[in-house]
Amino acid sequence: MEKGILQEKQYCMRITFFVFFLLMTGCLLTGCQTRHAIVRTPVPVKATDSMWNADNIAAFENRLEALRQRYHIPGLSAGIVNGGQLVWKKGFGYADVEGKLAPDENTVYQIASVTKTFGAIILMQQVEAGRIQLDDPIARYSINLGARWGSDERIRIKHLLTHTAMGNSFNAFKPGYTFRYNGGWYNQLGKAIEKASGHSFGELLLQNIVRPLGLARTVPSTDDSASFRLTGYSRDSFMRLVARPYDWQYKKLVPMKFSYGFGPAAGLESSVADLAVYARAIDEKRFLDSATWKKVFTPFVTVKGKTIQYGLGWFIKDYKGVRVMWHTGWWTGYSALFVRISQKDLTFIILANSQDLSRPFYHVMKVLPMFNPFRNNLNKDLFASAFAKAFMEHFMLL
């Protein structure tokens, strides 16, 4: 019995030695290098890169047109910024279906929640000036969120800015624990901005961003008469520049009538050409200090240490070692997508005169009574959008 056990131990030792020998031999042949995923430093895209060849551009344009038709979008305006210039731009379909008017880079659209990126800049300017602290309780600015939340002292400005104010039943609805997108609550930041600065959000937006950049086709909602009046434009004249809104209903495009509000969360109207200038200004780190921009583009970390997909007014995620920042916009008759990849020196802008450009992020076909379409909300990554995926595959070469 003991002899059998001894033989078994000797056999096991031989096997172990043989495996060790194979491993050491492999180490000698390969230099014993530990295998790690190769991390490549992102290289900015140049005008001479192969992705700008005519075949790739044509394939990309054909893909966008196919998507426009698949999603029944009447019109699109799209552009790509590289090297601080709008290097590619194109309109698809119609800005006005009945009038057969084609859109281009100067066509104006409601950009909906892409407005939040502007709102974050204005708010952070107040933070830099020492007028607002991100840890200020919302009650300091007479913000009341209603229901169980009210003006709870635990809810801070940073929670509204990062969509972490709401909480859920698993954490007793305490702020700072979970990401739950809420545009209405984000819009309450306008009260803090106005109380701290003595100026409305619209005044500061025009004074600090729109006019310095010469954004002639970027305005507060034409339906917000007080805010639009700040521009000095004739509303009737400006409306001729705006794409007409539609929705796909009962297998046909239906013109939409809706009153669009305005605030830090939504309601800005703009064009691809103007947003290209805005994108360049962000790349140049205008408006804010470098340290503040770093905070803006850093994902928020919850009380439990979980990193969410949102920073200060932007969605943020790394794809194959490259940081991508974006915001969607989705409103009655309009949708938008604004994608920045600063490490690659690329920005993709696409605007539509129906909701269906951004609908996949919200996954809502029809808003039902008492149903919040953002409850589960924008937890999807950028590839939820077939338009964003097309851009990434053609120009990021993923």
UniProtKB/TrEMBL annotation:
Matching Pfam families: Beta-lactamase
Database matches in SUPFAM superfamilies: beta-lactamase/transpeptidase-like
TM annotation in the entry: 12-31
Domain Beta-lactamase-related: residue ranges: 60-356
Keyword line: Membrane, Transmembrane, Transmembrane helix
Highest taxon listed in the record's lineage: Bacteria
Protein name as catalogued: Beta-lactamase-related domain-containing protein
Organism: Chitinophaga flava
Source species taxonomy: Bacteria, Pseudomonadati, Bacteroidota, Chitinophagia, Chitinophagales
